[in-house]
Amino acid sequence: MSQWISVREARQASSVGGEREVRGWVRTRRDSKGGFSFLELNDGSCFGNLQVVVPGEIENYTTEVQRLTAGCSVVVLGDLQESPAKGQATELHATSVKVIGWADPENYPLQKKRHSFEKLREWAHLRPRTNTFGAVARVRHQISQSIHQFYHEEGFYYCNTPVITASDCEGAGEMFRVTTIDLEGLAARGGKVDYGFDFFEKPTFLTVSGQLEAETYATALGRVYTFGPTFRAENSNTSRHLAEFWMVEPEAAFFDLQDNMQLAERFLKRVFSDCLEHCSEDMEFFDQRIEKGKLQQLQSVIEKPFTHLSYTKAIEILTSCNESFEYPVSWGTDLQAEHERYLTEKYVQGPVILTDYPSCIKPFYMRLSDDEKTVAAMDVLVPGVGEIIGGRQREDRLEVLQNRMSESDLAEKEYWWYLDLRRYGSVPHAGFGLGLERAVQYATGMANIRDVVPFPRTPGNAEF
């Protein structure tokens, strides 16, 4: 009985000989004058293809094999042998080729012609079959696996927080409303909303973060992390923004900002190390075809200790340098990507952790410093991107938190449960957030974040 193996297993086989079965999609077919054909077969398990040598003697050679085109799905049975060709260790000598599904060559979009990434977004259902997007999917998978494995090893428990929420933890108001109210009928009746008739009987939204809910479990289990979809109704058509994206947000009781920074550094080093180790073929492709020097850049992040700078020190550096910035810099303003990249790429030439931001530009839940001007916040910046992690130590003092909420015009009655965490056994605690797509974008060198998520959700686009 034949053994069904993946293309990856066939290409990496330590021993050859014996009948094997491989299933996948045809990338190319080349006919030889010697009366046989070469098929390049891929099943998504790895970047490279498996070469299949099909002799002209098999039963359906002229009726089917010589009609195969890109996109056709096949099951191939044959002998796995050492390959005499350069660049591949093995090849499959077919004894039978069964066609499972044909692909119309006149209408199949993914022909040999190169398409732009923008064009491929129109075929998001087919683009994972290309070299680039197959590689992106495998790296995204590896990063997701590394996230779970890292936090498991660090003693964190996986916590599932709500996708539907009544609170705006970021205070920005850029949230998607969730309702069962008949909006067309509402408009016909003059537009007045009575939430008593809505499903939850109050205004509800898609979450922008699970971090506040994660605190409830961190103050019971000690260390937890959330990993799930989050949503921002921010009308930003940029290469770095999505309306729907995935966030990992660890939260640890008895952690201060210093503990938090050390965790973030270990986390990034682990994620990128796993990419280089477990996705070497895909990462080589990104280094050669997408962003030259990507492997060296990631290796630098892994090997170099992260430099710590206060926000105030960073402002001094930026205002005293001779660089010409599009956005002016002054104490109390939020840093832009150009400022963050200057600090990482030119001043430090490596990863940077910025700390102690002005309280006026950070959310209410960050711990107020003794100077009452700054908060225990941190951002991790990396060369090529800028901010990749945003974090903070929480405000664990009840009265200080109440004052901060009042300054932010937040009603205490809406956060009664959050305040209870400060009433009953309050402890210092800290955490941060990492956008999965930002991490994938950085690891792969892909220029647009819409190309590292399977089906991007952006202003005006909810296809597929």
Q: Structural class from helices and strands? A: alpha+beta
CATH topology of the largest domain: BirA Bifunctional Protein, domain 2
SSE succession: EHEEEEEHHEEEHEHEEHHHEHHEEEHHEH
Number of strands: 17
Low-pLDDT stretches: none
Q: Any idea what the CATH superfamily of the largest domain is called?
A: Bira Bifunctional Protein, Domain 2
CATH architecture of the largest domain: 2-Layer Sandwich
Structure, explained:
- There is one protein chain.
- By secondary structure, this protein is of the alpha+beta class.
- Helices cover 30% and strands 25% of the residues.
- It has helices at residues 7-11, 117-120, 131-153, 183-188, 211-221, 257-278, 280-290, 294-303, 311-320, 337-347, 398-407, 416-423, 436-444, and strands spanning 3-5, 19-31, 36-42, 50-55, 73-82, 90-101, 157-158, 164-165, 177-178, 204-206, 223-231, 244-253, 307-310, 352-358, 374-382, 386-393, 429-435.
- The strands form three sheets. An eight-stranded mixed beta sheet has the order 7-11-12-17-16-15-14-13, with helices on both faces. A five-stranded mixed beta barrel has the order 2-3-4-6-5. It has a three-stranded antiparallel beta sheet with strand order 8-10-9, with no helix packed on it.
